[in-house]
Amino acid sequence: MSGEWIVVSDYDGTLAEENREVEPRVLEKLEELKAKYPFKFVIATARPLEDISRFVGKLWLVDALILEVGSVVALPEALEVIFKPWGWDRLRAVLRESVPAVNEGRVLYYVDEEELQVAERVAREKLGAFGYDLAKVGSRTYAFMPRGIDKGVGLERLLKLTGWSDAMIVSIGDSRTDLPLFQKSKVKVAVGNAAREVKEKADIVCEEKYGDCVVRVIEEIVNRMSYS
Fold first, then answer.
1. pLDDT over 70 for what percent of the chain?
2. How confident is the model at residue 227 (pLDDT cuts 50, 70, 90)?
3. Cα distance between residue 116 and residue 122, in whole Å
4. Bridge partners of residue 145, in order along the sequence
5. Distant-in-sequence contacts of 56-60, Cβ < 8 A, 24+ apart
6. C-alpha dist (Å) from residue 224 to 2, 5, 28, 209, 215
7. How many angstroms separate the CA atoms of 93 and 139, rounded?
8. CA distances (Å), 132 to each of 84, 85, 116, in order?
9. Which of 14, 130, 133, 170 could form a disulfide with 10 if both were Cys (CB 3.0 to 4.6 A apart)?
10. 187's torsion region: left (phi>0), alpha (psi -120 to 50) or beta?
């Protein structure tokens, strides 16, 4: 794998607008670039697999998925590797008794911001024996997740599982949850709509927003570096 490039893109706010499907023109361009240049394309997201399957119309263009903030790694061979600590299913069972879920993944338990106070109270009263974090993962969504997990951890897991550890990484993001990816990357890119703190950490800041930035990065940066 030495010398190959991996482009790792966040989903919401990066590859697409939040809670929206990828624009057809972006998918068409990505398909064209995949046929033209030697790189692997990875999506890193807080979402579970079912959500991404709905939002990305040509999922076969993706070489791997880092899901649920790094708790799950999925590969196109129908391999799904789940990372959860001992006793995590018990934590989810406790939450189901008292905290309404807006979504559930293989590992993460998602709650709407309207239920955040309830979630925090239940956590204080009933989850003291568990190692967990309760973090914001969307504009209105919070999630219970194993302590210490982030997208950078998920990327490390992916590289170990696939043997892609010698690859050169380009990461593209818009929010602070993408900064752990930046720490693992050779090239760090912020989309035009990214938060200021992300732009400050980036090597490159696109003028373009969302998926238009992603395809430009692949076309200009990966192509140039692959053949330099």
1. 97
2. low
3. 10
4. 133
5. 56/21, 56/22, 56/27, 57/21, 57/22, 57/24, 57/27, 58/27, 58/30, 58/31
6. 17, 11, 21, 21, 14
7. 25
8. 11, 10, 15
9. 14
10. beta
Residues near 29 by beta carbon (within 8 Å), at least 6 away in sequence: 215, 219
CA angle 224, 227, 228 (to 5 degrees): 75
Residue at token pair 């900064």: 179
**Tens-digit pLDDT profile for residues 42-72:** 999 999 999 999 999 888 999 999 999 999 9
The amino acid occupying position 47 is: R
Domains, the chain, ordered by start:
5-82+149-226 (3.40.50.1000), 88-146 (no CATH)
Q: Is 199 left (phi over 0), alpha (psi -120 to 50) or beta?
A: alpha
1 has a pLDDT exceeding 60: no
- The whole-number average pLDDT for the span 192-198 is 98
Residue for token digits 């939002």? 55
Tokens of residue 138, six digits? 């969307």
Three-state SS at 47: coil
Structure-token pair, residue 190: 């912020």
Flag whether the pTM goes above 0.85.
yes
Q: Where are the beta strands (DSSP E) in the chain?
A: 5-10, 39-44, 64-67, 72-75, 79-82, 103-104, 109-112, 132-136, 141-146, 168-173, 187-190, 204-205
